[in-house]
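Can anyone check this?
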Amino acid sequence: LLGQILDHWFESEPLKATLATDAVIGAMSSPHSPGSGYVLLHHVMGELEGRRGAWGYVAGGMGALSQAIAHAAASRGAHIFTEKAVSRVLLGRDGQAQGVVLRDGTEVRSKVVLSNASPQITFLELTPQEQLPEDFTRRIRHVDTRSPVTKINVAVDRLPSFLAAPNARDGQPLPHHQCSIHLNCEGTHLLHQAYTEATGGHPSSRPMIELCIPSVLDPGLAPRGCHVVSLFTQYTPYELAGGQPWDEQARNAYADTVFDCIEAYAPGFKASVIGRDILTPPDLERVFGLPGGNIFHGGMSLDQLYFARPAPSYSGYRSPVPGLYLCGSGAHPGGGVMGAAGRNAAQVALRDFKHL
């Protein structure tokens, strides 16, 4: 349990609760849920420029990371096509992957196909079902994809000023503006309470909020004097109680709750807002292809990790279809901006390619 790990090392409840957010981030679970301790460790086991557990912003936004990978691939001769939706994986008579068919009917032939889509999209939507073992597809269907995340992107006309550390008169960014700011995290009981509300189908009345201001470190993201604020919030259920839809009214009501919470820490925040973009779990699923809105393509619980990710006997990136590989967050070792699943899958595909 997460609580046992934190209690062993720390005394301060606000510090323990703040660290606990990394144990429940993206997960429909509480700090008291079994296995939550692993998710915390998962988020600090990596390194950045030699510093273990360090995190960083990507200059130009997260899309710049994808562009850097794309440029590296293109320099080695790769051809990259965007806005070209794939309709299905193309299989030969022997059941081996032979490429993909695009939605416009174009066939792209290849001896290997690596899918960075979720296991659900890869195996339940793009792969002919008759080519997959029934127990495998059953397992993929039953992967826990519950997500508590509603992401809110905000444009503001001035830097937020927090009661705990007010801005200087010149309005220049202070050290805490360059960090991840955790709100409503004074105690782990608050996180558990927020979780409990969401499991009943109700967005949290006092949601966990991780606030960061990337434009402080990357001024090109916003006009001079203005900033972009990224809010990673939970808990919000995928399905609301009583079958209510996540319509504009529900979206805005939850966002207003979040903004009211921020206002209590940083008076004047609401008045500084120029615009906001609200992405609930169904929105994250629709826009980004995340099953259930889950940022990890499936829960990072102990029953869905290691040899069981995405399914027992298929944790080595190969699938039941020869030549078809899973290389995204739904594969081992799971989600996170680290590229481990992709690198590992590429190594396996390269070894197999010699025999295909």
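Reply from J.R.: I decoded it. The first helix runs from residue 2 to 9.
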